[in-house]
Design a protein that fits this description.
28% of the residues lie in helices and 26% in strands. The protein has helices at 6-38, 88-99, 140-146, 176-180, and strands at 49-54, 63-66, 72-75, 79-82, 108-114, 119-124, 130-133, 159-165, 168-174, 196-199. The strands form three sheets. It has a five-stranded mixed β-sheet, covered by helices on one side. Residues 17-39 have low confidence and may be disordered.
């Protein structure tokens, strides 16, 4: 059997290690890109707090503001702007479009600092009923856990989620026993702002 030159063997090993490292880097990058593509952008709600400003303009300094109950904010030269239900990217683009009347190539900055308007409610036979802040979302099981779980009188298989939609209120049934047993997990939906989880 022909012996391989040690120098050639070393170079082949080096190339194999390099190719393996490159494959790991590419796989990691693909996973990151996939996560960024599939993760939904947060949409603002009344009560959320944000900092708004214009980059490198001393006359338009950053201001902290709270989204009003009707979903609006107000900023110099921009005026009233509807931000409820919109992402940071959408708000920034709308601000820049309005500011172009007064500033050449404006760069708006919009930073969400608190998501106090992104809330759901858990009521009924739980240990800690009340309002829960989502950052950015939680599912029904997580909400029940945050509310301390059901008390001794709770009918856990009779839980419902009340959700407001443009077509009216919608009822989503939730049978705790099934989900806890790993069955019909589609009931464990991600909650939307304003949802009410009722534990009878």
């Amino acid at each position: 059997m022909k012996k391989m030159n040690p120098g050639v063997a070393f170079m082949q090993l080096r190339y194999r290690v390099r190719d393996a490292a490159l494959a790991v880097v590419l796989a990691s990058a693909a996973m990151t890109a996939s996560a960024q593509t599939t993760a939904p952008e947060y949409k603002l709600h009344p009560g959320d707090k944000l900092v708004v400003g214009v980059y490198d303009d001393p006359k338009l300094l950053p201001q902290e503001m709270t989204v009003s109950p009707d979903g609006k904010i107000s900023y110099p030269l921009v005026g009233e702007l509807m931000v409820g239900g919109k992402s940071v990217g959408q708000i920034r683009a709308e601000m820049e479009a309005r500011l172009k009347k007064y500033i050449s190539d404006p760069i708006a900055t919009v930073i969400v600092t608190e998501v106090k308007g992104n809330v759901v409610y858990v009521i009924g036979q739980v240990l800690k009923p009340g309002q829960l802040i989502m950052n950015p979302t939680i599912n029904v099981m997580q909400a029940l856990s945050m509310a301390g779980g059901g008390n001794p009188y709770a009918k856990m298989d009779g839980i419902i989620v009340i959700r407001s939609t443009p077509a009216g209120q919608k009822i989503l049934p939730f049978k705790y026993g099934q989900v806890a047993a790993g069955k019909d997990l589609s009931q464990n939906v991600d909650l939307e702002s304003g949802d009410v989880v009722v534990v009878p």
